UniProtKB/TrEMBL annotation:
This is N-acetyltransferase. PANTHER family: GNAT-FAMILY ACETYLTRANSFERASE, SPERMIDINE N(1)-ACETYLTRANSFERASE. It comes from Tepiditoga spiralis. The keyword Transferase applies. InterPro entries: Acyl_CoA_acyltransferase, GNAT_dom.
Amino acid sequence: MLKGNKIRLRAYKREELKLVMEFINDEDVTKFLRPGVPFPFRYEDEIKFYESLNPMSTSSYSFAIELLETEKYIGGCGINEIDWKNSVATVGIFLGKPYWNKGYGTEALKILVDFIFNEMNINKVKLNVYSFNERAIKSYKKVGFVVEGRLRQEIFKEGKYYDEIIMGILRSEYKI
């Protein structure tokens, strides 16, 4: 569907839901995604997620990330919320741990942001990230996101409080 140099964003496939669940339930992945109690997702939860995907939606879009070379599923990204009146989209992304630190997440987010600005005519893309997720913050900055705000000690993880950082990029700032 949406293609880069190393990865493609495409629709999810039912047969990969067990792999999705394996990635999303990995303790090292989960700590960066959910602020609450890290209770594992069940297969039934993934089926409900899959069945709720609607290509005709006007409020959210979820994409599987796959490697171009092997067509292997490696993670997911999407537009979690769209404010059409104010032209703002909120995005999120995750990769399975074996695919970290290879540039795949940065490329996926660039493809997604480009789609949002150039196909959806949105003016601003934003996301939230925990302050302890330094790898993600570095990746987001490579795409052009800047820190817009900080919710101090918003997240309690592993016995400590951490900030939640709000980052954004405007269409006028985006460079292809």
